[in-house]
Write a structure and sequence with these properties.
This protein is α+β, with helices and mostly antiparallel strands and 114 residues long. 46% of the residues lie in helices and 14% in strands. It has a four-stranded mixed β-sheet, with helices on one face.
Length: 114
Amino acid sequence: MHTLYGIKNCDTVKKAKQWLEQNNIAYQFHDFRADELTSSQLSDFVSRVDWSNLLNRSSTSWRQLSIEQQSDLTAEKAIALMLANPTLIKRPVLDTGDKLIIGFKVDHYKTELL
């Protein structure tokens, strides 16, 4: 079964959930806020996709960070920021078991899941 990671009130996550349900694709939902995100989960993500693709630099959460927090990013610094504030992670993250799909685009989901 797939795991969809995100935040329940995120519009993009809602669209992904709706698409999965309409296409009869079983999944479980993991809410970054309610269910939290462990360092081992995030380490697993980063081992499977580049951390820079996971970090949402266009989010409100990113804009609220200080210039010092935003500058001189390394994998370790980005991981620490995402662990401290999971809303910095692009949403949704769909774990199919074989791969991680970051974000939601209908065409990409069709290609990867159907």
